[in-house]
Amino acid sequence: MAEKVIQEEKRVFMTGNEVVAWGALAANAEIMYGYPITPQNEIMHYWTRLAPKNEREFLQTEDELSAGFTTNGGVMAGRRAFTATAGPGNTLMQEPISMAEAMRLPTVTIVQQRGGPSTATVIYSQQEVTLTTLGGNGEGLRVVYSTATHQELFDYTIKAFNTAWKYRFPTFVLADGYQAKMRESLVMYDPASKGIEMFPTEPFVGKEGTPGVDREPGHFRNTYNVEEELYDVLQEHFADYNKMTPEVAEYKEIGSKESKVVVIAHGVVARGAKAAVEDLRAEGFNVGFFRPVTLRPLAVPELREVANNADKILVVESANGQMDRLLKEAIYGCSAEMLSLFKPGVGITAEEIEARVREIV
Amino acid sequence: MSVQLAMPNCWRMESKPHKFCPGCGHGIVLKALGQAIDELGIQDRAVFGCDIGCSLLAWDFFNIDTIQTHHGRTNPVITGIKRANPNVIGVAYMGDGGGYAIGSQHLVNAAARNENITAIVVNNTQYGMTGGQMAPTTLPGQKTETSPYGRDVAKTGNPTLGPEMVSAITPDGAYVARGTVSNVKQLTKFIKNALENQMNGNGFSFVEALSTCPTNWRTNATDTWKFLEKEMSQYFTVGELKAPGSQNEEGQANG
Amino acid sequence: MGRAWKIALAGEGGQGVQSVAQILAEAANEQGREALYIPNFGVEQRGGVSVAYLQIGDVAIGAPKFQTADIVVALSDRAIHRTRKYVGPETVFVYDSGIEGITDDDLPDNAKKVFGIPALEVAKNELHPRVFNVIIMGAVVKATDVVPEEKVKEAIEKKLGYKFEQNPKLREMNFKAIERGAQLVAEAL
User: A211 and B65 in contact by Cβ < 8 A?
Assistant: First the structure.
């Protein structure tokens, strides 16, 4: 991979799925494993067109269990490996992700949320927040970036690989069907040109030398014999996760710490929320905006500051309170009243948010 | 006759004696595997994946890079590694539940894609680790915890014939055999053939090993071997089912 | 802050509204403006009414969909009914006057302006049914001024240039269709 994929910065206009494929390429991702499901299919379509020209690999598996477990294998071989899924596929993906969580495997998973529960719609939702942040039979030891624009899809696809390999927690780029299918502009770049260094990868298995002779064998497991053994391992994971949190937790805001009403939204919904808040502020309303970029871990201290200063928080999401539950845990005991605008599986326009804010200011 | 070493070189002394029950066949299969690895000199390149079920007890068995995966998911993990690093010799080691029930879609598709990995399924006719439930390989009439009156094939189907299935769905180049822990020399040869087949880049290399589980069979030593040699081998035919070039050799021999 | 133009285009599957939206979005992007285009899609996408949501402005676009459009273009009776909800007091509503059985009751009564253009007829009689959607593109360009006609022609050239190479008459016909679409709107306004 001597040749740079993107020689110089260029403004492009494309769908979000195409952006992800380019982002993964720019991040020097080496292999994608995937299984078809709408609305993420075009990530595979673009990757399979770009991969052979850039010495990258692809494997279409028999299902998402296999896509997830082969991705686990790919990172254990020391490669920047990733997969992409949605909806019912994300449900299946939770099993391999829980292995990645247990064994600290730096997998990257792109999720293009669609309607739920079950098959629901192939279109759009923000209903995979609970699953992506806390899914599997574990403790949610993951990093989840919720993107809002194509520029962010590109930026955070690159960043996800670095976060995963640096901290060794499975990392997600959580987008949605709208972002997958819509077209807008962004600037693509070579990470190095922005001073972004790709965090080096390292094989878990297949290293140099004969195990037991030149080096210790790598023995990797996720099964423990006794309760205390598991407990001790988890304590280490929690400590690492807590140490990482202030370094990775991200948010964006507009006047959130000095406004009486603050709108909180994530992902594509945050675009409408931001537009609504900007309009209302231009009219002189005392309204702020807060957007968690990482849904896991959340920027808890900043959220608590907001929730202790504001009188009212309006949580807006295309789900029936999945982010709301995460927020409530984070700001437990804070003084703001929590209000909501939930439209599970349905897009939310700036107009709707503006109208709702006018009701409560 | 060659001198039988007590332990293959690639076994890890620190984890011996191993964790399997007395009379369990896993130790014998893993000895055959260890010997094959020694003979081929691939301890440095081998990556061993074990499943959930009794096979997981092999997670620190070898001085070989090892990954203990999930139930049924060892084939995709080893596939993922092999695809990402073709220099590795990948061994997916699992029981009959992992291979033929919960992981059957992975086995079928890895075989159909002719993945260049070696899969070993240890067939002891039931789920050992969970306490002896009926498996896809349970013999007709065989009593288990979930077929206490004997397996009723009218209700639960006939035992899965793994190698026959894999043989039917793999293209030329694949290697398929069924060995038994009652013939270690032959089993070692089959596993060695399977590993060599992968090293030659020929594709999916599959060995089922008929094995024993006196703990759940509730058999003494005599009855254990009787069940393996008389009951199981009657249903599951031991031998090579598919080997690259073997048809040609036969053709030449006949012609 | 300049608000983005909000455009909803709706028609039957195969009428080409998605291509219209995509080419307009690309033309605007080429011009250095901000554009966002999102199709509706679903498991029934091949059978039903196809809606394209297009926004063009000078600053980053907000939510990908919107409640009220500045201009709605509806190309079938079902599309007219489907898009009525995007109409507000500031909306210009354009429909094809060749759609059969449409009465005033079917058309929105809350729009700033409602008018029909004979795009289907012009396509069939003057040009070619295949460039029907290109006429619509010309109509949108004229009705909104979001992108100059020349940029749209460039975008079409980029998209279909390889076909035009083989058959230069196609280029002529497409560009003519743009111009005719613009004329139809000019006459109606």
Answer: yes
Burial of A293: CB neighbours in 10 Å, binned 0-12, 13-18, 19+ = buried
Q: Return the half-sphere exposure (C-beta side, CA atoms, 13 A cut-off) of residue A202.
A: 10
Which pTM does this prediction carry? 0.94
Complex prediction ipTM? 0.92
3-state secondary structure of A41: helix
Domain extent listing, chain C: 5-188
CA distance A224 to chain B (A): 10
> What is the rounded distance in angstroms from the CA atom of residue A168 to the CA atom of residue A108?
10
Rounded to a whole number of angstroms, the distance from the CA of A108 to the nearest CA of chain B is 14
Overall size of chain C counted in residues: 189
Chain A closest-CA separation from residue B181 CA (Å) = 26
C-beta atoms of C25 and A352 within 8 A: no
Chain A residue whose CA is closest to C39: A182
With an 8 Å Cβ cutoff, are A66 and B109 in contact? Answer: yes
B45: which 2 tokens?
Answer: 């390149």
For the beta carbon of residue A170, count every other beta carbon within 10 angstroms. 30
Chain A residues lying within 8 Å of B84, measured CB to CB = 30-31, 57, 73-74, 77-79, 81
Structural domains in chain A plus CATH codes: 10-190 (3.40.50.970), 252-360 (3.40.50.920)
CATH homologous superfamily, domain C5-188: Pyruvate-ferredoxin oxidoreductase, PFOR, domain III (3.40.920.10)
Q: Which of B43, B57, B67 to mutate to test the interface with A (most CBs of A within 10 A)?
A: B67
Q: Give, for all 361 residues of chain A, the pLDDT tens digit.
A: 446 889 899 999 999 999 999 999 999 999 999 999 999 999 999 999 999 999 999 999 999 999 999 999 999 999 999 999 999 999 999 999 999 999 999 999 999 999 999 999 999 999 999 999 999 999 999 999 999 999 999 999 999 999 999 999 999 999 999 999 999 999 999 999 999 999 999 999 999 999 999 999 999 999 999 999 999 999 999 999 999 999 999 999 999 999 999 999 999 999 999 999 999 999 999 999 999 999 999 999 999 999 999 999 999 999 999 999 999 999 999 999 999 999 999 999 999 999 999 999 9
C185: left (phi over 0), alpha (psi -120 to 50) or beta: alpha
Which of the residues C18, C34, C36 would you substitute to probe the A interface, choosing the one with the greatest number of A C-beta atoms within 10 Å?
C36
Fold classification of B13-254 is Rossmann fold (3.40.50)
On the CB side of A208, how many CA atoms lie within 13 Å of its CA? 1
Residue of C nearest to A122 (CA): C42
- Looking at residue C140, its amino acid is V
Phi, psi at C98, each rounded to 5°: -85, -5
Chain A contact residues (CB < 8 Å to B)? 30-31, 33, 57, 59, 61-63, 65-66, 69-74, 76-79, 81, 95-96, 99, 203-207, 209-214, 217-223
Min CA distance, B17 vs chain A (Å)?
A: 17
Of C1, C42, C66, the CB nearest to A121: C42
Interface contact C31, partner A, CB < 8 A: no
Put simply, the answer to whether C67 touches A121 (Cβ < 8 Å) is no
Which among B47, B70, B83 is the nearest to A205, CB-wise? B47
Four-residue CA torsion sign, A103, A106, A107, A113: positive
3-state helix vs strand vs coil in chain C, percent to 5:
45, 20, 35
Cis peptide before A117 (omega within 30 of 0): yes
Give dist(CA C139, CA C115) in Å, integer.
12
